[in-house]
Amino acid sequence: MDPLRIADYRTRSRAFTVEAHAIFSIHEDARKSRVVEVHASFEALDELSLKQDDLFRQALRCAENGLYRAAHVMAWAAFMDYLEEMLASDGLVQVRALRPAWKGRNIEEMREYVTEHAFVETTQPLGLCTKNQMKALLGLLNKRNECAHPSDFYPGVNETLGYISEVIQRTKQLQAKSL
C-alpha cells in the first residue's frame, strides 16, 4: 500500500478518535471518553516537571480504571509538587520572609516539617492567588484528605473528573503567576 495513503488513514483515524471521544464524553457512562476530555485539558499545562507530568498521568489512569479515591490523591500530589517547586523557585527567599520559623534548608526538608495546608495558606500573602482561590485550594486539599484517609466518602466518576479538572485549572492559574 502507498505510504502516503497509510499516513492519510492514520491522520483520519486519529481525527475520528478525537471526535468520537468528544461526542461520547457527554454521556454519563462513557468513562473512557470523559477521561480523554480531561486528558486534553491536562495536555494544555505548560512547564511541568517529569514528576508532575507522571503524577497527573497516574491520576488520569486511576480515573480510567475506576480507582477514584486514588485519582484524587494522585492529582493533588501533582499539584502540591508544582506548588512546592514554585515556592522554592527563588531559593525560598519570599517563603522565609513570610514564615521565618519554618524549618528546612530546602523544599525537600520543609516538606518534612510544613503541612500541605500551611504551604497552601502562603499562596495568598505571596500574591499567587486571591483569598477565595486559596480557600478553594484548601477545599481541594480537604477532598484529597477524605480520599487518602479512612472515610465514608467514595467519589464516582463525575466527582473524580471534576476534581482532576479543577486541580488542572488551579495549576494553570499558578502557572500564570511567578514569585
From TrEMBL:
What is the protein named?
A: RiboL-PSP-HEPN domain-containing protein
Q: From which organism does this entry originate?
A: Nocardioides anomalus
